[in-house]
Amino acid sequence: MNKLLQFIFILPISSTLTRFLGGNNIIYDYLNLTEGSRCNWNGLDGVCASPYHCRSAMEDIGHSRFPPICSVQGVKVFICCTDCELGDITDSFRVNAYTPVWYYKTGEKARDHCLDYLELETKTPYRCYYVYDHYDTYYNSTGNCYDVKFDDTPPGSSQGGVGGIPSNRDQYRHMALLGYGDHIDSAQWLCGGSLISNKFILTAGHCTASAKLGPVRYAALGILKRSDPLELWQRYLVKRIIPHPQYKPPSKYHDIALLETDTDVAFNKQVFPACLQFLANPRGDLWNSLAVATGWGALGHKRELADVMQAVYLDRYEPHECSLAYPRHRHLLQGYDHTTQMCYGNREIVRDTCEGDSGGPLQVYSLVARCVYSIIGVTSSGKSCGFAGNSGLYTRVIHYLSWIEGVVWPD
């Protein structure tokens, strides 16, 4: 049954994101079904729901592909949504302002704050210019519905630690350099970290203290080079050191920690937080097959620390390869633990993290935007760097997500 509808339905998110359903004598299929009823569109099984809950429908409406209307109840419209899973309400959506990609909040703290960072970027002079091209819907034959998946490729295949290349300014704006010693002006900057909020830096447990210099005391943000002039350094005192409660040095297990700064970090073009990985496998097995590690570590075995931040692109190793590379020893009593650890490197050429890169991030492009990274690992340890075929050991961030959320974003 067709019905002529002459109303306008507006998705009021922002002036650039408004979508219309109706108006101008457009003819729709009208199903006369209530919210929650089963429906069918183009041979696909669906459910009657608000467009606010239907990600693919919002995209369809934006391209003048109008789903059937189940019913109209006052000002509320319910359409036949053929998504396999309904999303949250549109008030919780964040939309990439440069392409029609929709993301939504779920109440999970790391995810929601990541989306807040995207929204903040689109409203500031240091906004994000590198974004996903689009997303596609894929037919799910089991459910006879559509899965919404983000189309993307791994973050490049450039060379980039050892075998790395210098980073560009403003490229890794979450990077922190950690300092040790009694005075900030004479501090030794020995570890890396990742800014993940306006108060907290993620790093490795073994970076919370130096055997010779004592606990970490300072964090520097906004720099590309160790030799950058002082006015480019945003320096903060470390107010609180929070190693994971299961971290027991010199063991390599649970090698993760949080540092709280003494004052709120000022975001700008050079300083902006990274996201944390919040989905276990968001785009299939290839999603994290290539990742990038960044830091100011040594440029090779027994070589000097890098002046310019280095980026090194690393391949993911399979669990059995990691187990062979990291068997049981006095600092890994149970050997490699795939639940809490992972290893990345290169099987053929010299490409690895090195001394001084500890605590820094292993990252991939975020689900939100290309200039926001998602931290999937924390640089923990490894064998002697500078040798072909080596892999480094990284703490698996998603395993510790609940602990991180409880510290950084407490209720």
Protein model, in words:
InterPro entries: CLIP_Serine_Protease, Peptidase_S1_PA, Peptidase_S1_PA_chymotrypsin, Peptidase_S1A, Trypsin_dom, TRYPSIN_HIS, TRYPSIN_SER. Keywords: Disulfide bond, Glycoprotein, Hydrolase, Protease, Serine protease, Signal. GO terms for molecular function: serine-type endopeptidase activity. The structure is a single chain. The protein is mainly beta and 411 residues long. It folds into three domains: 80 residues, no CATH class; 62 residues, no CATH class; 258 residues, Trypsin-like serine proteases (Thrombin, subunit H), CATH 2.40.10. 9% of the residues lie in helices and 34% in strands. The protein has four helices and 27 strands. A six-stranded antiparallel barrel has the order 22-23-24-27-26-25. The chain has a six-stranded antiparallel barrel with strand order 14-15-16-20-19-18. A four-stranded antiparallel β-sheet has the order 5-6-8-7, with no helix packed on it. The longest helix has 14 residues. The protein starts with a strand and ends with a helix. The N terminus is likely disordered.
Short key terms for the protein model shown above:
single chain; 411 residues; mainly beta; Thrombin, subunit H; 3 domains; six-stranded antiparallel barrel; six-stranded antiparallel β-barrel; 34% strand; elongated; disordered N terminus; Peptidase S1 domain-containing protein; serine-type endopeptidase activity
